[in-house]
Structure formats: structure tokens, C-alpha cells
Specification:
The chain is an alpha/beta fold and 262 residues long. The protein has one domain: Vaccinia Virus protein VP39 (Rossmann fold, 3-Layer(aba) Sandwich). Helices cover 42% and strands 14% of the residues. Strands 3-2-1-4-5-7-6 form a seven-stranded mixed sheet, sandwiched between helices. A hairpin with an 8-residue loop joins strand 6 and strand 7. Helix 6 runs antiparallel to helix 9. The mean pLDDT is 91.
Length: 262
């Protein structure tokens, strides 16, 4: 199945800001409720230790992505561990909610952050969860080049896949908010309205979910991307991590300066 570079509705500049925040809140809640990325904690832990750091700069965070769950798990394993959330369209209410949790070490960056041009003051191992597929190959290379120029490590992780079963699962994914929307925080009446009375959120999740699958890079394509930029002084790992046959594999790209490995 060929990769298709199409648009996702909620990432467009013209998309209503309040509805984008409602959608990213919903995505964040679903990721944490399902612990979708919990299985890769050992992979992230090894990457951080290899890169020689304890600070994470999460790019394209949405409403926090899986970090409320992952930060709790990693904080117990890495002394001084903390995460900074960033996004091109920061969901400040959700970020404040994440930062205020006493059981995790999370802060957030209020200004808009383009993953292709990360501010120099944001130093740390960069992560992207369920976001790298948003970028066309030229933009994806720009993200990697910017990381290499800053001499930072990077970890890209995707739960979507370019397969027919993964696309079919988007039907279940799109109706899942019907069951947990009242429990999403911060609470908003608009989220109830656009989930139950005018089902815009389920529709966008369905449409964007299918597009996400069609845009997701395969491991060989990720290897090709990093090969194109010629970062010979970096160590790169790509692949699919599967905890068990009962869970979907997670596609990953990990890179860090070769001289940083400890």
C-alpha cells in the first residue's frame, strides 16, 4: 500500500481552535486510558540512557499525548526525569492540567513550537508520538536535520500502520469517545455537544484516523529518510516493537549522537 500524503482536518490552520482542543483532549484521554504506548517504556528508557540525558522535549504534544502515563513509569526508573510538552497549536488548558499533576514531572512551553525549527533553549531528547506521519518526506527530513544540528537525540513512535486491519480499526476508534467523553478533563460542554448532538469529533477522528494510517511511514521508509540526510555521526535504529501477539506493533525511529552513548 503506497503512502499517501493527504490532510488531516484537525491540523489545518483554519480548523476551529476550540474544536481542535476538544479533539486533542479526547486523543490524549484515549491514549492514556488504553496505555497504548506503555509497552515501549523499556525502549524509551534505553534511548534516554544511550543519549545520556534525563530531559525530554515532546514535540507535537496535542494535549499531552501518552506522557501522563509514560512519565509516571519513567520517573521511577530515571533520576531527575522530566518532560516538556510543546506544540505548534498548544492546548494550554490541557498542558496546565498535565503540569499540575503531583505524580508526574511535566512542564509545558506556552509558545508555538514548529518541530522543524525547535528553539535552541529547548534542549533534551526529542520525542514525537503519533505525529511524525503528519509531515511529508521533505518536512520529516527537516525535523531530523534540525535535531542533528542541535546535537540532540530523537525518538519517533507511531501506533498507526499502513495496513487494511489498522484502517478498519479506525471505525472502532472513532466511536470510542461515545463511551468516555464525560470523563475527559478539563471538562468542556462543547466536547459533549460535538460528540453526542453534533458528532463532529467522532467524524474527525474517523477521517483523520484513516488518513493517519495512509500517511504512516514504514521502518524501511524511516531508514531511507535518515539515510538521505547523511548524519553519519549518529546512531539510528528503526523497526516495529511488539510486546505480544495480542497487541499492535509500534513503529519507531530512534537516533542519538554516536559520542553520547554511555
Amino acid at each position: 500500500m503506497r503512502r499517501i500524503q493527504f490532510i488531516e482536518l484537525h491540523e489545518q490552520p483554519w480548523f476551529p481552535r476550540f474544536l481542535r482542543d476538544d479533539i486533542t483532549d479526547t486523543l490524549q484521554c484515549a491514549l492514556n486510558f488504553s496505555a497504548a504506548y506503555a509497552s515501549i517504556v523499556p525502549l524509551v528508557q534505553r534511548a534516554l540512557r544511550s543519549a545520556g540525558g534525563d530531559s525530554v522535549i515532546d514535540l507535537c504534544s496535542g494535549a499531552g499525548g501518552p506522557w501522563l502515563d509514560l512519565a509516571r513509569r519513567l520517573r521511577c526508573e530515571i533520576s531527575g526525569f522530566h518532560v516538556s510538552l510543546t506544540d505548534k497549536f498548544p492546548n494550554n488548558a490541557a498542558f496546565e492540567n498535565a503540569e499540575g499533576r503531583p505524580d508526574v514531572s511535566i512542564v509545558f512551553y506556552r509558545q508555538s513550537v514548529d518541530a522543524r525549527e525547535v528553539p535552541a533553549e529547548l534542549a533534551g531528547f526529542r520525542t514525537m508520538f503519533s505525529a511524525f506521519h503528519h509531515f511529508a518526506p521533505a518536512e520529516a527530513r527537516a525535523i531530523i536535520r534540525n535535531t542533528v544540528a542541535a546535537k540532540q537525540g530523537i525518538g519517533v513512535f507511531e501506533i498507526t500502520r499502513r495496513t487494511l486491519p489498522a484502517i478498519a480499526l479506525m471505525i472502532l476508534w472513532s466511536v470510542s469517545p461515545l463511551f468516555f467523553t464525560p470523563f475527559v478533563r478539563p471538562f468542556r460542554w462543547s466536547r459533549l455537544l460535538f460528540t453526542y448532538l453534533v458528532p463532529a469529533i467522532p467524524f474527525v477522528l474517523f477521517f483523520d484516523g484513516i488518513v493517519s494510517c495512509l500517511r504512516t511511514y514504514r521502518p524501511a521508509e524511516l531508514t531511507e529518510l535518515v539515510g538521505d540526510i547523511g548524519a553519519a555521526n549518529y546512531k539510528w535504529q528503526t523497526g516495529e516493537f511488539r510486546e505480544s501477539i495480542f497487541k499492535a506493533p509500534i513503529t519507531y525511529l530512534i537516533g542519538f549522537p554516536a559520542d553520547a552513548e554511555i
